[in-house]
């Protein structure tokens, strides 16, 4: 069994970054905590915005990181995934894989994070996140 330490974020793909940033900022009192304009051609060169909404983060992407990395086909706008912090991504992934849970992306390093993506039985993408502090 995997026991997440915390629910960290929800990720959404948008076709209009400015519109959606304004919505979360102006209608849900969100605070923009990070934003970048990239090409969307690589997972480390994306157009995105990170907002703090209530006690969680909302990430808006023009292209999902795993989409830009070529790990999945093009995804439609809307919900992308939930992200949960775990103490050890590799151990959590091994537990889930042993139960036959299908992975979209095996554990990999992504900047200061170690991440993995899997699908729930209903097809929802879920990200496991391990910070550099473990």
Automatic annotation (TrEMBL):
PROSITE patterns for the chain: VOC
A molecular function (GO) term: methylmalonyl-CoA epimerase activity
Record keyword tRNA-binding present: no
Domain VOC: 6-131
Regions annotated as coiled coil: none
Keywords: Metal-binding
PANTHER family given in the database record: METHYLMALONYL-COA EPIMERASE, METHYLMALONYL-COA EPIMERASE, MITOCHONDRIAL
Protein name in UniProt: VOC family protein
Gene source species: Haloglomus irregulare
